[in-house]
Design a protein that fits this description.
- This protein is mostly helical.
- The protein has 18 helices and 2 strands.
- Strand 1 and strand 2 form a beta hairpin.
- Pfam families: MFS_1.
Length: 487
C-alpha cells in the first residue's frame, strides 16, 4: 500500500513496520524449514553408512526413514489444534527445543531401534514446527505480499536440500554417522533463540476439544499401510504381514470416516475441503509430494548402489534437484504478483513430470551424467514452482477461523504423500532384486556383486521413476481442475 506525498509515492510507516516484522518472521520460519530439511536430506544420502554401522536389515532400514515420516504426518493436525489452544508461538518454539534434544540423543543411539525411537521424537518436534510455520508467515504478511514471503519461505527448503546432500555425504565419509544428527544441535539452538527474540504472541483460537480418537485411528491406518509396503519391499508379497496390513487399513478407512463425521471437531473435517478448488489443489499437492519426496533418496541410492560412488560423490550428484528448487521458488514468488498461483501450480506439475520422464529413460549406468543432471534440474524447478503456487493458492482460500488445524490438515495430506512416496519407492526398488539382495541395496554394496544383479536393479529404478512420473502427471491434472469458480 502506498500514499502520494508531494507528488511522490511513499510507503506508510505502519506498512513499512509490518513488512519489517514480516521479513523477520520469514527468517525464523525459514530457519525451521532449513533445520528439518537438512536433517532429512543428510540422512537420505548417508543412509547406507548408518545401515552398515548397525548391520540393519531391509525392514529396519526402511523404518529409520519411515518412523519419522509416519509420526510427523499423524501429529501435524494434532499440533495445529494444540497451537490454536495453547498459543502458536509457544508450540512453535517448543518444537525447536524438542527437535534439538532428540537430535542429540539420536547420535548416541546404541542400536537401530533406539535410533528409530529418537527419529520419532524428532518427528514430534518437526510437526510442531511445520504445523505452525506457514500459519505464522501467513499472519505476518499483507495479502498482496504473501506470494513473495511464501516464495522465500519455500525457497529455504530448497537451500536445506541443497546443503543437506553434500553435507550428509561429507559427514558420512569423514566425521562419522553420529554427526548427521549432532549437526542439528547448534542450528536448533540458534533457531530457538532467534525465534524467542523475534516472534510476537499471536491470539489463541477458540478452546475446542482435540480429536484424540481420530488422531489415533489415522496413525493406526497409516502404520498398517506402511508396514505392508515395507514388508512387500523387504521380504516379498508372500509375507503374511502384507495382507494383514492391507486388511487393517481397509477396515480402518471407513471407520475413520464414520468417527470423523460424528466428532464435534474432527481431525479430518471434510467440510473444510468440500469445494472443488481446495479439494483438487490438495490432491495436486498429494500427488506432487509422492512424485517429489523420495527423488533425492532414490537418486542417491542409484549412484551409490548402481555406479559404486561414495556418499560424498552421491551427495554432489543429486544437487541439481535442490538447485532447481532454490532457483525456481523465489522466481515463482516474484512472478506470482503478475501470474496467478493456479498457473504456477500447473506449470510446476508439468515440469516435474518432464524431469521424471527424463530420468526414467536414463537409468543405464553408461548414461552421461549431464543428461541425468538435466532431468534432476527440471524436476527440481517443477517442484519449487508448484509448491510456491499451490501453497499460495490454498492458504489464500482458507477460512480465517481455525487456520491452524486447517493448515495442519493441508500439511498432513502432503505428508501422507511423502510417507507413501518413500515407502512405495523403496518397495518397488528393493522388490526388483528380491529379498535376498535387498539388504545390499540399502547398504549400497550391490554394485560389488554380479552384473546381473545390477541389471535387475536398473529395471527397479526404471519402474520407480515410471511410477513417480505417472503420479506427477496425475498431479498436473488435479492442478488444472483446481481453478476457483467465479461468483
Amino acid at each position: 500500500m502506498y500514499v502520494i506525498v508531494g507528488g511522490m509515492l511513499e510507503v506508510p510507516p505502519d506498512h513499512a513496520a509490518r513488512m519489517s516484522y514480516a521479513w523477520k518472521v520469514c527468517s525464523v520460519t525459514s530457519l525451521g524449514l532449513i533445520l528439518i530439511g537438512v536433517a532429512g536430506s543428510t540422512l537420505n544420502v548417508a543412509l547406507p553408512t548408518v545401515v552398515r554401522h548397525f548391520s540393519a536389515d531391509p525392514f529396519q532400514s526402511n523404518w529409520i526413514l519411515l518412523s519419522f515420516l509416519l509420526v510427523n504426518t499423524a501429529s501435524l493436525v494434532f499440533f495445529g489444534r494444540i497451537a490454536d489452544l495453547l498459543g502458536r508461538r509457544e508450540v512453535y518454539l517448543l518444537g525447536f527445543a524438542l527437535f534439538t534434544v532428540a537430535s542429540l540423543l539420536a547420535g548416541l543411539s546404541p542400536n537401530v531401534w533406539f535410533l528409530v525411537a529418537m527419529r520419532m521424537l524428532q518427528a514430534v518436534g518437526a510437526a510442531m514446527i511445520l504445523a505452525n510455520g506457514t500459519v505464522i508467515i501467513t499472519d505476518a504478511f499483507p495479502p498482496e505480499r504473501l506470494s513473495q514471503g511464501m516464495g522465500v519461505y519455500i525457497g529455504t527448503m530448497s537451500v536445506a536440500q541443497l546443503t543437506g546432500p553434500t553435507l550428509g555425504g561429507l559427514i558420512a565419509e569423514t566425521a562419522g554417522w553420529q554427526w548427521i544428527f549432532w549437526v542439528n544441535v547448534p542450528a536448533g539452538l540458534i533457531a530457538l533463540t532467534w525465534g524467542a527474540i523475534t516472534l510476537r504472541r499471536m491470539p489463541r483460537g477458540p478452546k475446542q476439544p482435540v480429536d484424540a480418537l481420530g488422531n489415533a485411528l489415522v496413525f493406526a491406518a497409516l502404520s498398517a499401510v506402511l508396514l505392508a509396503l515395507s514388508e512387500a519391499g523387504s521380504r516379498g508379497l508372500s509375507s503374511p504381514i502384507v495382507p494383514v496390513g492391507v486388511a487393517v487399513f481397509v477396515v480402518l478407512a471407513p471407520l475413520i470416516v464414520l468417527v470423523e463425521r460424528r466428532a464435534s471437531h474432527p481431525v479430518l473435517d471434510p467440510r473444510l475441503f468440500g469445494g472443488r478448488m481446495l479439494a483438487c489443489a490438495n490432491l495436486a499437492s498429494f500427488c506432487n509430494a509422492i512424485a517429489r519426496a523420495s527423488l533425492i533418496l532414490v537418486v542417491a541410492l542409484y549412484f551409490q548402489a548402481a555406479r559404486g560412488v561414495d556418499a560424498f560423490a552421491a551427495g554432489l550428484s543429486v544437487l541439481p534437484v535442490p538447485v532447481g528448487m532454490a532457483l525456481a521458488s523465489p522466481v515463482a514468488g516474484s512472478v506470482g504478483r503478475r501470474v496467478s498461483p493456479y498457473a504456477l501450480a500447473i506449470g510446476g506439475s508439468l515440469m516435474s513430470a518432464a524431469g521424471l520422464g527424463t530420468l526414467m529413460l536414463t537409468t543405464d549406468p553408461a548414461t552421461p551424467y549431464w543428461i541425468i543432471g538435466i532431468g534432476l534440474f527440471v524436476a527440481g524447478c517443477g517442484s519449487g514452482t508448484f509448491l510456491t503456487g499451490n501453497t499460495t493458492q490454498v492458504m489464500a482460500a482458507l477460512p480465517a477461523g481455525s487456520l491452524g488445524v486447517v493448515n495442519g490438515f493441508r500439511l498432513m495430506i502432503m505428508n501422507v504423500g511423502i510417507v507413501l512416496s518413500v515407502g512405495l519407492s523403496l518397495s518397488v526398488l528393493a522388490g526388483s532384486v528380491g529379498p535376498e539382495l535387498g539388504a545390499q541395496v540399502y547398504a549400497a554394496t550391490l554394485s560389488e556383486l554380479s552384473p546381473v544383479a545390477v541389471d535387475l536393479l536398473m529395471d527397479g529404478f526404471r519402474r520407480t521413476y515410471g511410477v513417480l512420473f505417472g503420479v506427477a502427471l496425475t498431479g498436473a491434472l488435479m492442478a488444472a481442475l483446481a481453478r476457483a469458480r467465479r461468483g
